[in-house]
Amino acid sequence: MQKKITIFQCIIFKIMKTIFIFFITLLIASAHPQDSRIIEKTDNLKEKVKISSGKDKINAYLELIDYLSLNQPNKALLEKDSILSLVQRLDDKSALITTYLTLGECYSKTSQSEAALEYFEKGLELSKKIKDSSKIADSFIRIGRSKIPFGELDQSLKLFDDALAISTRNKDIHNQILAINYLGILNYILDNIKEAENLSYKALNLAKENNDSEGICLANEHLTIIKIYQKKYNDALNFNKVAYDISLQRDFLVNIPGVYYNFAVIYNRLGDYDKAIDYMYKSEQIRRSFNDKRGIASDLGMLGRIYLSKKDYKNAIDKFKQALEIYKEFDAIRPMTSILSRISTAYENIGDYKSALNYFKEFKTFSDSIYNENVKREAAVSNAKRQLEEKEKEIKYLEEKNEVQIKIQKYLIVFSSLIMILLFSAVVLYLKVRKSRQNLSEINQKLISLNKERDKFFSIISHDLKSPFLGILGITELLKEETSKSDNQQMKKLTENLDKAVNNQYKLVENLLDWTRIQSGKMVYTPEQFILTDVINNALDVLYNFSSQKNIRIEKNIEKDFNVFADKKMITSVLMNLLSNAIKYSYSDSSVNIIVNQKNDDFVSVQIIDNGVGIPQEKISKIFNSDSNLSTEGTEREKGTGLGLLLVKEMLLKNGGDINVKSTVDEGSIFEFTLPSVRN
Fold it and tell me: For residue 468, what is the enclosing H or E element?
């Protein structure tokens, strides 16, 4: 009787088990309506394998395992022996590489990391043998991705960089997109969030330009993670929704658990725990369908964290313990340590301090044991960061080098163009000269006529520009005197500004006319012997009001009354320009020094020293250059003409002297000029 009951119980148990499996299958199918499409397409691909032969059979097999790797990777592994036997028998090395890489992907998706890495490295080795650069890049990317969970970030970085370099060189857009994507996520892991975001957007844009659905999906997933870190949850939801839609449309079933996981993280952060839990159960169901044990453990751990946030400590402990058992199978100490800490916290919250203490002790044991692993991981992180810094420096150097090369190319183009223009001009000029030799006398007459017209023009300008100013200067001086008696401060200020503006314009006109006379050779050089001190004193008398307005002291250190031989009018203009500049660029309540001494037997030296704003070194070489019209405001916004120092230089050279300047910014300037002296 007991035996019959036992048999009956076994039958009931088997029936219940079948019903449970059927129910779970229906539940998953209802959650993912594309499952029926996946099953149908899988059956069609298997049928295609059956009816094909030779190379066509290989291609059919590759299509089948590629599709299964994206949807049922555990079932793809069942085809391993058949396809390997076929491609090895037909000696199709390219197909064999693809097979190795696809099988490695299947092992990776089913939590068999060592086997995955083995097959990726087989693919890389064979790719190098046949020199297939596209598959070398593909292998680098897969191996680099496999090393991230083990903390070998420096190696991952080098592999991704190499993959990007190879794919860029060969214009392999798909692998470029993948390499940029994974460089983005690696930068995220290394806390280089800005660069991670830039790379992910770069990958997304490139993928969109080339309609690469895998690249678009991957970039959106990475941007979801970045936006979660930035607490931009609406953006994260939008990016994750795009990744979900593509995964659904393109039958990327193995990708959907990761998308669900991201949804759960977002909703957990937003406090919508029920929705977060719902997404985690959906993720777990799919992972169980292709036996992704590490993924299942990760989902269970996340469920535990959500229940912990929800303060449902009983369910949190249950999920953490389930995750812990799976992690023990993989000897995954790092996640086990985290789980043990959270179990201890959960027990503490329900008042079971004994259990909390036990799990805490276990947590401490494991946390101590991962010290060496942490050291290794930190070293890898440090190496990876150093590589990134070196890479950034190299990129900056190459960019600078590229800019220099571009500039050189531009200069060469300009130089070549100028040479061509000069050659062309020379030919044209030669032809014109040859043609016009007979008319040389006529041309000379025209030049003489033009010179006369120019002189007449300057004469008219001199009269028509200067004459009106004399009347205006008188009016402004009168206005200034009248308003000085008024209490209207605003009117006083306006009148003073007007007077300054008119005087400045008059000075500009005088300098301009002097300049044109010098350039045209019409300025008469009339040297004479005179006492330099008298000219200095006259200039100071004229500038007295200007210096008084700024309360600037004029200090003279004149060795003796030197006789000089020069054009007195020109030297007066030189002193007026230099002294007015010294006052203009000096700060209020400072001083201007004039030092006159015998420089040598033939020359007298005059130094005008101010305590003002100074001149930057890069501008000193330009202030006497007619090609650089430098005009700057004084310390109280006084305007300059930009011609004064040019005239000074020209006039001193005409008088057999010279000028030089020394200056320090914010300390002042020393202008020293020389004049021929007359021996007593």
Answer: helix 440-484
**What pLDDT is attached to residue 174?**
94
8 A C-beta contact, residue 133 and residue 172: yes
Dihedral of CA atoms 162, 292, 25, 284 in degrees, nearest 10, equals: -100
Beta strands in 559-636 (DSSP E): 563-567, 591-598, 603-610
Give me 466's structure tokens: 């200067």
Contact present, 350 and 314 (Cβ < 8 Å):
yes
362-371 contacts: CB < 8 A, separation 24 or more?
Answer: 363/337, 366/333, 366/336, 366/337, 366/340, 367/337, 369/333, 370/333, 370/334, 370/337
Q: Which of 574, 537, 545 is nearest to 649 (CA)?
A: 574
Q: Which residue has the higher pLDDT, 245 or 518?
A: 245
Model confidence at 1, pLDDT cuts 50, 70, 90, reads: very low
Per-residue DSSP letter, 613: S
Reported as a pLDDT band with limits 50, 70 and 90, residue 30 is very low
In a domain, 535, yes or no: yes
Pick the closest to residue 247 from 227, 261, 265 (CA basis): 261
pLDDT band at 454 (very low <50, low <70, confident <90, very high): low
What are 140's strand-pairing partners?
A: none
Give the domain extent around 624: 524-676
Q: What is the domain-level CATH number for residue 621? A: 3.30.565.10
Is residue 662 assigned to a domain?
Answer: yes
Taking the C-alpha atoms of residue 292 and residue 578, their distance in angstroms, rounded to an integer, is 87
Which of 141, 153, 149 lies closest to 177 in space, CA to CA?
141
CA–CA distance, 372 with 386 (Å, rounded to integer):
21
Token pair 């030189």: residue: 574
- Of 401 and 303, more confident: 303
- Asked if residue 68 lies in contact with residue 42, where contact means CB atoms within 8 angstroms, the answer is yes
Q: In this structure, are residues 196 and 226 in contact, taking their beta carbons and an 8 Å threshold?
A: yes
The C-alpha atoms of residue 136 and residue 166 are separated, in whole angstroms, by 8
580: in domain: yes
Supply angle C-alpha 375, 190, 108, rounded to 5. Answer: 80
pLDDT at residue number 415: 58
What are the pLDDT digits (tens) for 207-264?
A: 999 999 999 999 999 999 999 999 999 999 999 999 999 999 988 899 999 999 999 9
In a domain, 475, yes or no: no
Total number of domains in the chain? 2
Name the band, by pLDDT with cuts 50, 70 and 90, for residue 319.
very high
pTM over 0.85: no
Q: Closest Cα to residue 338, out of 302, 314, 376, 311?
A: 302
**Which residue is listed with tokens 């995954």?**
332
Non-local (6+) Cβ contacts of 21 within 8 A are none
Residues 623-629: contacts with CB under 8 Å, at least 24 apart: 623/661, 624/648, 624/649, 624/659
